[in-house]
């Protein structure tokens, strides 16, 4: 975990605000370190975590979390972590094999017009299980949904409106109904003011910005990287490993 970021957000694994939707976004930079931070943060907080990993394998997240002092394998075995490996599930659908079972959660790959209802149902069943405790099983805290990254769904042919609806229903179920938290990553490749930018991604980012309670945006500095100066309009002083991070509430 990044203790400096926890200090800025005035939070800790023992004390954090419930019912928050945290939007993580980046532009010409890489905000994935924030996803790794929140994954280890909420596991340390003993929350029940549902992680939609749409861009990397479980091994990737596990290796990074190991460096942060958290074992994803143990979290899965204990039932604290439900990990949806999008790459693996997509492969089983696109290249069927006898021993593999297709996941209904990725049926939008066959027909993007069906929307993300099945993926939402997977999320809902995963986070609802946090409230039921079997005899002898450990009891976990509030549910948390993490998505890395939501904008990938657009490149897979899913309609922008369906992605925004998916976020809205997840927020209603996780944040409002269950008083848990939600963290989603959205990547923007073009410049915001350019006409040839990705219009759907920009529209998704704006829509999610209106939904979220906290927006963490990572962007390369216009003056370039500097060891001692961390942004010409930085709202606060941050370490060099947090260049161009801005916080909006």
TrEMBL record:
It comes from the Eukaryota. Signal peptide: none annotated. Pfam families: ELP6 (PF09807). Pathway: tRNA modification; 5-methoxycarbonylmethyl-2-thiouridine-tRNA biosynthesis. PANTHER family: ELONGATOR COMPLEX PROTEIN 6. Belongs to the ELP6 family. This is Elongator complex protein 6. It comes from Ilyodon furcidens (goldbreast splitfin).
